[in-house]
Amino acid sequence: MAAAGAFPVIPGTDISGVVSAVGDDVADIAVGDAVHSMVRFPEGLAGDSRAYAEYVAVPASQVAPKPEGIGHVQAAGAPMSLLTAWQFLIDPGHDHPNPLQPDPHEPVPLEGRTVLVNGAAGGVGHLAVQIAKMKGARVIAVASGRHQTFLRDLGADAVIDYTATLPEDVVHDVDLVLDAVGGPRTGRFLRTLKPGGALFPVFPLGYSGAEEAARLGVTVSTTQVRSSGAQLRQLGHLLEDGTLRVVLDSTYPLADARKAHERAARGHVQGKIVLTVA
């Protein structure tokens, strides 16, 4: 086996398919079961997840039954984005030390609150919009204007086209910002929050607004999404009954993985990009 991070690297983390073999110590998964998973994340980040493949070895604890009523393509699009949105907004689902900050990440109540989701049309964002709405929040979605009808259909109460209007200039007194884009510019959302509010950047690298956050009386918190078959099992019924929908931007055969990455690089993705195996 190649060392982690050594070439050739097989990328990818999310899968859905049919079990072809199980270990001797696996009791609750059988050959022929339809399952999905986020594979070895974050420990496999350097190339040990290896999901861009026809056959993938997965720890049994990270596997969940594929939700009935949706196909393998949608099920493959769910794990990373769904677990990220859920672990940020509802329940981290683990007690591992937080590698991104000294304290554990703590979600905040959503019912009756106003939640702004930045990057709302993307993989994490479009599921975060649905989860926040399901939990009783008023949801403001930030995305480019072409996604307005899409986001309204997912339940957003208001949509801001960031290409026409800067959200930080027009939004005030929200309870929570989930910034699915993150990065150095995430601090601009501090001014949209009411005192006691919270900013959750999914990608916090480059954030430098700690002093401003303290002055404004708002919390900034992030977490590292982790594989969890238990949480995927818990959330399966929400995908089965249509409460949550995984929307597909596009699909590509596995052999055209390069084209899928080129599509992602062009941006303005609506939902998920999925690779298929014939």
What does this protein structure show overall?
- The chain has 278 residues and is α/β, with parallel strands linked by helices.
- It has helices at residues 72-77, 79-89, 123-134, 148-154, 167-170, 210-216, 229-240, 257-266; strands spanning 14-18, 34-38, 63-65, 114-118, 138-143, 158-161, 174-179, 193-201, 219-220, 248-253, 272-276.
- The strands form three sheets. The chain has a six-stranded parallel β-sheet with strand order 6-5-4-7-8-9, with helices on both faces.
- The protein is globular and about 55 Å long.
- The model has no long low-confidence stretch (mean pLDDT 96).
Strand order of the largest sheet: 6-5-4-7-8-9
Number of discrete helical segments: 8
Helix-strand topology string:
EEEHHEHEHEHEEHEHEHE
The oligomerization state is single chain
Radius of gyration: 19 Å
CATH class of the largest domain: Alpha Beta
Number of strands: 11
Q: How large is the share of residues in beta strands?
A: 15-25%
Q: What's the N-to-C terminus distance?
A: 26 Å
What gross morphology would you assign? globular
**Integer tally of domains:** 2
Organism: Methylobrevis pamukkalensis
InterPro entries: ADH-like_N, Chloroplast_QOR, ER, GroES-like_sf, NAD(P)-bd_dom_sf
Domain Enoyl reductase (ER): 5-275
Keywords: Acyltransferase, Transferase
